[in-house]
């Protein structure tokens, strides 16, 4: 007979995530504490979405560069819960986050979490051009974020993006063709650049325009404006067009 821990491990290997009810059913116990004792011994994480109702083992998530892992409808973070995740994103953001912007990245509602963090003085908040922007609690970092936000908003108001609403069809087609010719990193960075120009809601607009995931756009924007860009993406040795074979003259 399999031990309860073995049953749980097998369940997670099969379906990656599970609710408490599913775990209880798998080991045939109604005792919540029994489940948590087994999970603690195995090492586990809870989702920051769905009010923490989904569980997984610590070695299962494949976190992306932003420390996020999405599986089906569940959202997990290397930070654990939503409060810690939201705080990290705000602290690391080049120009802070509005609630709407962070919602687009984390794909969950974050208003109450941000308000709680602000009230507990875990993060700062400023009203910039009519929008509440959540910022680092560190005064020097907060100043840099505010300056970056002001600059970003100014660029957006000038409409300095080729992806405007009145884009002619032929121009739209040309931009999409150009986008398709870029490699993965270049597409991500270009999408992030255009999203930055558009300001609030830019990630979603650009994601819809190019037909890519909004998280890809957000990642590109962060990489570009934090300087975390891989510069050694030159063509690998042996890459490119093969040399033409010279035919002997007859």
Helix-strand layout with pairing:
Layout lengths: L3 H12 L2 E2 H8 L4 H11 L1 E3 L7 E4 L10 E4 L2 E4 L4 H11 L6 H8 L4 H9 L4 E5 L2 E5 L3 H19 L11 H13 L2 H15 L3 H9 L3 H13 L24
Antiparallel strand pairs: 1-3, 2-3, 4-5, 6-7
Structural class by sheet pairing and helices:
mainly alpha
Q: Strand order, main sheet: write it out.
A: 1-3-2
What kind of sheet is the major sheet? 3 strands, antiparallel
**Number of domains in the coordinates?**
3
Q: With helices defined by DSSP (H or I, 4 residues minimum), what is the helix count?
A: 11
Write the CATH architecture name of the largest domain.
Orthogonal Bundle
In CATH, what is the class of the largest domain? Mainly Alpha
Describe the structure.
This protein has 250 residues and is mainly alpha-helical. The chain folds into 3 domains: 15-77, no CATH class; 82-157, Orthogonal Bundle (Arc Repressor Mutant, subunit A); 169-226, no CATH class. Helix content is 51%, strand content 11%. The chain is built from 11 helices and 7 strands. The protein has helices at 4-15, 20-27, 32-42, 82-92, 99-106, 111-119, 139-157, 169-181, 184-198, 202-210, 214-226, and strands at 18-19, 44-46, 54-57, 68-71, 74-77, 124-128, 131-135. The strands form 3 sheets. The chain has a 3-stranded antiparallel sheet. A two-stranded antiparallel sheet has the order 4-5. A hairpin with a 2-residue loop joins β6 and β7. The protein is globular, with a radius of gyration of 23 Å. The N and C termini lie far apart (80 Å). Mean pLDDT is 84; it is low at 234-246.
